[in-house]
Amino acid sequence: MPLLRRARAVAVSVVLLASGSTVASATAAAQPDPFTAPIASCVQPGPTLRYLVVFDQGTSQPIAEAQIAAACGTSTVYYPQISVAVATSPDPTFGRRMGADRAYSAQAEAISKLNGAVTRKKVDETGMGKASRGGAVDRTVEQWDMDLIRAAEAHAINNGSRDVVVGVLDSGIDPSHPDLVGALDPGLSAGCATSGRADSSVAAWSPTTSAHGTHVAGTIAAADDGRGTTGVAPGVRIASVKVVDDDGYIYPEYAVCGFMWAAVHGMTITNNSYFIDPWVFTCQNQVGQRVVYEAVRRAVDYSSDSGVLTVAAAGNSATDLSKPGRDSQSPTNAEELRPRALDNTCLVLPAQLRSVVAVSSVGADKVKTGYSSYGLGAVDLTAPGGDRKQVPDDAVDGCVLSTVPAGYDYSCGTSMATPHVSGVAALLASVHPEATAPQLSRMLNDQSETLPCPADYDLNGTGAQDAYCMGYSEYNGFYGHGLVDALAAVTR
């Protein structure tokens, strides 16, 4: 799924959330207050849906849970640190009772827009069951991406510290893969992709329908043991934080759960090779979407304030993120998402949040891949994500080789570029254990290899530029501050 595209439908009828909030007046004093309506007035036609609920900062858990119950809902989990809850309700009026500016169901959005269509899962090009089995064979010669960022040279100096933990917020990590078993910390792993509440059982954080998380994990920390592949920082620990459900979706309540789990459990870095459903662009000025934006922003900020560096993929829609727009169609039904009207309140989450390191993708020639999103001020760094049109050697695929359940496979995308940055950040954190998350971010910028804008970006040979790179050599819209450099990370 390089960066998980939308493609799903569910044949269920859902009553849409109200677009406005009710204002009480003196003449309406005789009407029941929806926030204190007796439970007996609740209806249960189903389906039971999940909601994110945002409260005023400082709201206590008893008050939050009481308001949810009075609105005909049940609290699944409450995060008092950020005053955000995940709730469920079978009552279609729950959103209206709580208020459209406080409660929103991304699940309902996806279902209602695709009512009656054929059910499909989101596309995942890193598929389960198609892996090549490497056995004891050393496949590092196929890892052109590691050569590009000088990872092997870095390993001669520093492999990374066991004190550093990278949380892989993704589709789960294979706990039995020989290249990962030494790095994976089951005690710090959890699944968020069922209810939005963390579940630390092995079944909850193991992969089920997607190899994506295992592929990402291998790029970060696959063992340097002369077999299979080797990660950027093979000496660090990784944790599986599952935020992708079995249909391939990352609903906002899953991501909030993942960020909070990483913060509470003291992780150093989180890798986020996804964008949050049900849109590519989440708009702060749209009813419902602003609930999602606020909840995710609070969770990321809390994670950052707790010392966690958040690294995220810029996306595979080849979009200029400096000119954001609303989704042009239902994002859960789109293979060809592009922004519609320009709207500078619309952002890709989590990549475009203030404290997040956003990553674009390059191929073997160190040129931005055609699919990678970009944008001056939106992209911080770049890393190898691969392109099958660019084959660095006759015997090597142009995509990135890494671990998947039962073996190894190639995949391309900004999803694949992002863990290279997380791995280099892990090396930096190993060398500088006292560094804060903002300091690690600045170090990433400082150690990167400058990549100027290409003089000609005509990928298809049509005579027209496929995208326009704005900025200057040291900082531009294609590459941000440049290409990460593992060797520089352990020597400067």
Automatic annotation (TrEMBL):
Q: Where is this region: Disordered?
A: 318-337
Spell out the catalytic residues: 170, 212, 415
Q: Which residues form the Peptidase S8/S53 domain?
A: 162-457
Is Nucleotidyltransferase a UniProt keyword of this protein?
no
Q: Kindly give the InterPro entries that the UniProt entry links to this protein.
A: Peptidase_S8/S53_dom, Peptidase_S8/S53_dom_sf, Peptidase_S8_Asp-AS, Peptidase_S8_His-AS, Peptidase_S8_Ser-AS, Peptidase_S8_subtilisin-like, Peptidase_S8_subtilisin-rel
> Which SUPFAM superfamilies does this entry report, sorted A to Z?
Subtilisin-like
Source taxon at top rank: Bacteria
Tell me one GO molecular function of this protein. serine-type endopeptidase activity
Q: Which UniProt keywords apply?
A: Hydrolase, Protease, Serine protease, Signal
Task: Please give the Pfam families that the UniProt record associates with this protein.
Answer: Peptidase_S8
Region forming the signal peptide: 1-24
What GO biological process terms does the UniProt entry carry, in alphabetical order?
proteolysis
The record's listing under Gene3D superfamilies reads: Peptidase S8/S53 domain
Annotated PANTHER family:
CEREVISIN-RELATED (PTHR43806:SF11), PEPTIDASE S8 (PTHR43806)
- What family, per the record? Belongs to the peptidase S8 family.
Identification of the protein by name: S8 family serine peptidase
Source organism of this protein record: Umezawaea endophytica
